[in-house]
Amino acid sequence: MKKLITSLALVLSALSSYAITPLWMRDARISPDGSEIVFCYKGDIYKVPAQGGTAVQLTTQTSYEANPVWSPDGKQIAFASDRNGNFDLFIMPADGGAARRLTYHSASEIPSTFTPDGKYVFFSASIQDPASSALFPTGAMTELYKVPVAGGRTEQVLGTPAELVCFDKTGKNFLYQDRKGFEDEWRKHHTSSITRDIWLYNTQTGKHTNLTNRGGEDRNPVYAPDGNAIYFLSERDGGSFNVYTFSLNTPQEVKAMTTFKTHPVRFLSVSDKGTLCYTYDGELYTQKSGARPEKVKVELVRDDEQQLATLKFSQGATSASVSPDGKQIAFIVRGDVFVTSTDYATTKQITNTPAKEAAVSFAPDNRTLVYASERTGNWQLYTAKISRKEDPNFPNATLIEEEVLLPSKTVERAYPQYSPDGKELAFIEDRNRLMVLDLKTKKVRQVTDGSTWYNTGGGFDYEWSPDGKWFTLEFIGNRHDPYSDVGIVSAQGGAITNLTNSGYISGAPRWVLDGNAILFQTERYGMRAHASWGSQQDVMLVFLNQDAYDRYRLSKEDFELLKEFEKEQKKAKEKDDEKTKDAKKSKAEKADKGNVNKGKADKSKADKEKSKVDSSKDSNQDESADDKADQKELLVELNCIEDRIVRLTPNSSDLGSAILSKDGEDLYYFSAFEDGYDLWKMNLREKDTKRLHKLNTGWASLMLDKKGDIFLLGSRMIQKMDAKSDALKSISYQAEMKMDLAAERETMFDHVYKQYQKRFYNVNMHGVDWDAMTNAYRKFLPHIDNNYDFAELLSEWLGELNVSHTGGRYSPKGKGDVTSNLGLLFDWNYQGKGMQIAEVIEKGPFDHSRTKVKAGCIIEKINGEEITLDNDITCLLNNKAGKKTLISIYNPQSKERWEEVVMPVTNGQLNGLLYKRWVKQRAADVEKWSKGRLGYVHIQSMGDDSFRTVYSDILGKYNNCEGIVIDTRFNGGGRLHEDIEILFSGQKYFTQVVRGREACDMPSRRWNKPSIMLQCEANYSNAHGTPWVYKHQKIGKLVGMPVPGTMTSVSWETLQDPSLVFGIPIIGYRLPDGSYLENQDMWWFAGIIRDVSLIRRPKHHMLDWRIVSDLVMEQNETTGKICLDAVFENHTEDETALTVEMEVMDGEQVIFSESREISGKKGETEYVTEVIL
């Protein structure tokens, strides 16, 4: 009764309105007169008096509203809202009311400010670069626009990123923060080339002036009321974000206005009277001139109900497994376990927790499931069993018993698999050890010790042998991660036998041919570059004994003859067995003669035994001869096993799952040659390959049931294929659940915490107290009710680690407008009706022989609707991609008007065309400036496609050039540094000559001539590692801007709510001195450092230098260590010793100095020093 009353009280409180003190208030802005503050909370916009009080809710839509900005007179508020599927600009009265939509593009439009006259709203969005721009075309870099408050045509202000604009009173100048690349907005504590600077822009002269120009973060500038000074947010003095100020006359004289610790100050604004407003630790603060910060006490009333969502799924399963009898399929969707019938749509929910379940599979009895769950904060194993023997299967079960196996608060256990006889359970412990549990004795034994697995993701592929005495598994055989091998190991434990032993990635092993062979996938024949993507795979077989291999090699005719011979042998054996059985029966009958009248007790016992057999008939059926054969002990012959590995697939491809038919005669596999995966079939005797079913689906697994039917298990579809006819039958399900979304967010938060604790590449968490920091952010969870805020919370929290490749990402599945493109670049300075064309993009919709459209023409109408100053072309181009569209054109030179029909393209297609255009322009520049002596290539990503393009260009059209420019700017990474190093480090060793004519230099597949590498602040990940390798292997010079130190490898993990992902840097790259490349910028003297250019370099000069700083903990004292590693180069005959002077300064104070002589010999001389402070 007590439990019932408590639950009732909770429900009543949830349904009532009550006053709360909000946390996680974001996007705060103080009104121009300083009397009110607008802020965002739980996706709505609120307004509160600046001195505190009860907040008034201004927006009430179910959509998400953000980034409110005040008009100069304080009467209107512009904001961004996703109520139409993506973020558009809206405007409403400052007291609330109906909001008007101002923008219609499907890009996210984020407002910055009003113009001082209140006529326009400035906003940032990635819509279109100017035709004259040389900027890299990417949606990650925005432009600055304005739109009339009354609505109408959008105008471009700047073609470069300018965020959080703030005007002076005259409107002649504005401040902004820049954006240089791809780093997460909420990352903290980094000092690198990608951090934001504050700029001053003169609207009359077009001049940009960098006011901060340093390695740390400076952002969110606002003018002081007199216009002579600015306030801004900065991470200086080794702390978090605080408010700073400086005079525009002396920007180098920076003064701190706040001294908050631990957490960042965010969302700075200022009133006309000089009152500052900002947030700290989720709360509002104001600060008057010369005064200390004051917390604004905010209360608001909400009628929030418990977020209990009813979710329905007919697809989206993340893992699935077929019961041995083929009648049930267990799967996981949104983190819960379900089972559906393969014959009916009947579906049963097995688990109902806000936490995540994973890796579900059936026991041999078809009545037991095993899976892992993170519901206790630690991965544990659970079983679910049908309680009532009258219930035939899970979809129709009335009672299901769940049991936790081997409960533990510290040891993780996941990826369970039953042994073939169901008596044991294998699982992976602590993400790297294969273990086995005896289900009867509850004893656990270790099979592998974890030393052969490096990935911390949670598990690896393994499978029991049919006789239960072996495992096949993927493992790292030669400390060569991530290049895995396939091996076998005794189920009792011991050493792993390497079956593949190659330098290629091999995995996905499966026992086939009654356990006489192992099917696996490998890139051995399909490897392209050593890139993180691009390699293709093949299906291969390794035979565990000579007999199985010999059978496989037989021709179809010889194999049929062998099967006939074996069939006759089997019949003869069965006949002999029958004779033996009859003889034993006759003997038994004679022995039992005279014992017909046995006692009732014996009869009763016999009846019970019979009843016992009958009752188990439904679940265990009579074992077939094939089942008994499965239990036959396997013959494993390891000698010369490398000679019994065969390739099955005729062509390497992008493979999905693969499986052999029950008789071992046919290979079925998923392959993506075009778009999605299709199902292919290959007869292994006749080597006949065909596409069996065109599915165009995502990744899916293949499984066999005991009868040999094949199941296709994917997130988009589940199907059953008949073993004889290959006919497909769709299996539908309707999974329905009630989900407490707040509880789910909390479990996802806990999951992220645990994943970082287990997977983050640096075991010391970059010096962050991870438990304390987690608790500091956990308090915000009750104040978050949507995924926008939750993803931002993850980014703020993970940003404390000062590491790249992290943060939360939310991808809403909106159904808003999608803006299409005509393949035209417009003149943003044109002020008349219509849109004037500045350029027709090559290979776009208007690039064909029949068009009369060219630069200077004006688009007047789209599908008959006129483009005026009061509407925007975006409205007329929404949702037109791929559809025939009538365009009305006017040529102002010839005065001709005409119409053409085109099919607009998507933003993605346009970006592809713009990228090719950008590369051609850069190549043309290099050819022009070098007068044809140099070639140019751009490495778009560190993947196989880019590598093949670069390879083709440098050894094709640029092979006769004297040198090559390698452009890596705006490359987002991958894994290609090894191949780039090899490709460009060729040294000519001889020449191929044909009858005295030089035909080719050797090596012929590498670049043997000079090269130079171009880079910038937007290089990321392996685009940091690749220039580092290029430089330190002394292949050539680096030119451009410093590259931020972002060289880690990331795992982007999708949460149980699939609209949310987060990144974990799981691999670091350590240098011989023990430091890591992460957070080490690429600084050099061979080019430009920020705004400083080297005009002249003496012949005896510093070639390169690198600084590594670290904190040293000794006896509870923290000291700083600075290492300087420099290289001097002498190109003169003068070898007089050099004097090197070094000073370490704290501000203007010298805290360390050193003077040392080094050798002045010709060539390079290294100078190394270490300073403890």
Structure description:
This protein has 1173 residues and is an alpha+beta fold. Strands 59, 60, 61, 62, 63 and 64 form a six-stranded antiparallel sheet that branches. Helix 13 runs parallel beside helix 14. The longest helix is centred in the middle third of the chain and has 37 residues, at 556-592. The chain is globular and about 120 Å long. The two termini are 66 Å apart. The model is unreliable at 1-16, 608-626, 1083-1097 and 1111-1116 (pLDDT under 50).
The share of residues in helices is 10-25%
Number of strands: 79
**Overall form:** globular
Work out the strand percent: 35-45%
Overall pLDDT level: 89
Specify Rg, calculated over alpha carbons: 35 Å
Q: Please count the helical segments.
A: 14
Provide a quick synopsis of the model.
The protein has 14 helices and 79 strands. The chain is α+β, with helices and mostly antiparallel strands and 1173 residues long.
What characteristics describe this protein?
single chain; 1173 residues; alpha+beta; six-stranded antiparallel beta sheet; four-stranded antiparallel beta sheet; 14 helices; 37% strand
